[in-house]
Amino acid sequence: PAVLRERRTAELLAEHCRWEYEGLPYWGGEVDCCINAWTLANGLWLGADVAGIVDWFCEHRLADGGWNCAWVEGSTRSSFASTLNSLTGLLAYDVATGGTDATHAARHGGEEYLLRRGLFRRLSTGEPVAPWVDRFAYPFRAFYSVLAAAEYFRRASVHAGTVPDRRMADAIDLIRAARQPDGAWIQARRHPGRTWFEVDVPAGEPSPWLTLYGTRVLDWWDSSTP
User: Fold this and answer.
1) What is the pTM of this model?
2) Which single residue of 15, 28, 119, 157 could bond 171 by disulfide (Cβ 3.0 to 4.6 Å)?
């Protein structure tokens, strides 16, 4: 980030870029939780003023504890993906700045939303919310999987100095079950969208990045959980 800061990347984005949604200022974010989450994390990395996005997340958490990008269309129920991405942005803020009472409370509420559901189950039936929960793909982008969620909780745990929450146990079993005999994890798919350059393997091949994340999550869980 030091190189990009020397080149005034954050300032140039502020001067020349606006969102398609109502032409809102770049570092002010827009109305999509996932977009705002990654804008928040990137802005912190570049040293931009992202205080407005932080406040936005604290103000737009839904009554059930999480977030949903479809809130602007009237949705009142949180989404697994929107909640995970929102948590990722807020964790980046808390790590970089120490956070505030408001961000700590927002993160706790969002974490509880996922943990009450074991990271992948419907609260109403206990069934998996969708077949994609254990289809692992890298880059994660804004898509949800139990591996991406477990990586968030690992980083949050390391930051706070806490042990893993036992409600993640079934999700960890899904991650462990996907590990191949040689210790690798397989790229399940490639997410749609323009890619400037490749950072991982095609679908069906052993993925170095998924193997890194899977190994790191299991090491954290196994070393901290009786």
Assistant:
1) 0.95
2) 119
